[in-house]
TrEMBL record:
Belongs to the 'phage' integrase family. It holds the Pfam family Phage_integrase. Keywords: DNA integration, DNA recombination, DNA-binding. It comes from Longibacter salinarum. GO terms for molecular function: DNA binding. Residues 94-122 are annotated as: Disordered. PROSITE patterns: CB, TYR_RECOMBINASE. The keyword Transcription regulation does not apply. This is Integrase. Residues 2-82 form the Core-binding (CB) domain. Residues 112-326 form the Tyr recombinase domain.
Amino acid sequence: MGGPVSLVESFVHQKESPHTRRAYRRDLRAFFGQTEVTKDLVCGVDHDDIDAFLARGESSGLAESTLRRRRSALRQFFDWLTAEGVVTSNPARHGRIRTPMARPASTSGQEKSSGPLSRDQAEKLVASIDGSTAVGRRNRALVMLVLHCALRRGELVRVNVDDFRLVGRYRILEIRDSESGSTSISGSDQTKSGHQDKIETLSGRAKVPEHVYRHVQAVRMDVDVRVGALFRSYSNRNRGARITGDSVYRVVRDAGQAIDIDALTPDRLRQTGLQLALESGATGDQVRAHGRYAASAPYSARHEERLRDSAADYVEVGENLSISGA
């Protein structure tokens, strides 16, 4: 690699969507200023070059969605170059790279109480959750998974600690659904009355960005188990039991109220993640697939290719948060 063949063309050729191929080709050519991008050229790029490129776009009045798509194109391009051994690190993921400015959130009563959150509100939401306690780390990871993995409330409560795995280079979450009328053989999830939970069958899969998985790992360390529920109760009455759908509702509602967002629900949070992905350059097909509006097929090489360019990568909320704090 890296001879006369343009690395940009090799990269965009892997993208499934023609729209994404055109947009990323245009963004990368705008950054490099030429069509033929070789190994020598990419090896000379550092994070200051990328930050300056985004700054020029910002000062020229480009839309926030365009700036975020450009940043995403550069991140994914250098991720690919790193995986291929062309470069040793990704300068587009440096902590000093600017985050494109969000549009001011509307203060109208209608938008305050319904519809997806703005990016600024979503960032404020996850940053406001206290990560210094086990309860706070659980709540933050819960919110991050809903935003980035488009989980429904019922799917979230059924997440187990061993539902995360690698497919190639990508982390995924196996999403479970309940099979009516069946019982689980797992004693760890028995109720106090002795009844066993329903069998949970696989209903879908979602890519989990690495910065989200770090928060999941913190929760796994807190619960300190190898199987069973990831999200557990810390109440005196039900300590250690799998949280309920009502608990998820209260966690999300209370997190919203803490930053003066009324009527925040898990579904509204899920729709926020999908909307943010769309605004940042994900295609409609990517968002529909990520939202699992159709049945998921078993993973294959083709599915692994799709993971390279998942809508989850466009949400980009809470990327700079530490595990224990803001």
